[in-house]
Specification:
Number of strands: 2
Oligomer: single chain
Helix content: 25-40%
Distance between the termini: 57 Å
Order of helices and strands: HEE
Number of helices: 1
Radius of gyration: 32 Å
Strand order of the largest sheet: 1-2
Largest sheet: 2 strands, antiparallel
């Protein structure tokens, strides 16, 4: 019975000491360490497709297409 009590108290002590580090606050970064005020992202996509038919009835359509997409985003940080 004594060993169980000792282990229980020891486990509580270890958890209390280990949990103290979690409660500590980080220092605020100085102005020179602060990151950029704006975070930006740019995504570009290019795609192409082709459809060609051989031995198709008269009036059949062949096609060739190209598609481009440019998508950008800029978000202000800290607001």
């Amino acid at each position: 019975m004594r060993s169980r009590t000792f282990i229980f108290v020891l486990a509580g002590f270890v958890l209390a000491v280990a949990g103290n580090g979690v409660l500590a606050q980080q220092e605020a970064p100085s102005a020179s360490e602060a990151g950029p005020e704006w975070e930006s992202e740019l995504i570009g996509k290019i795609s192409a497709s082709q459809a060609a038919y051989r031995n198709w009835q008269e009036g059949g359509l062949n096609s060739l297409s190209f598609t481009t997409l440019l998508d950008g985003l800029a978000e202000r940080q800290g607001d």
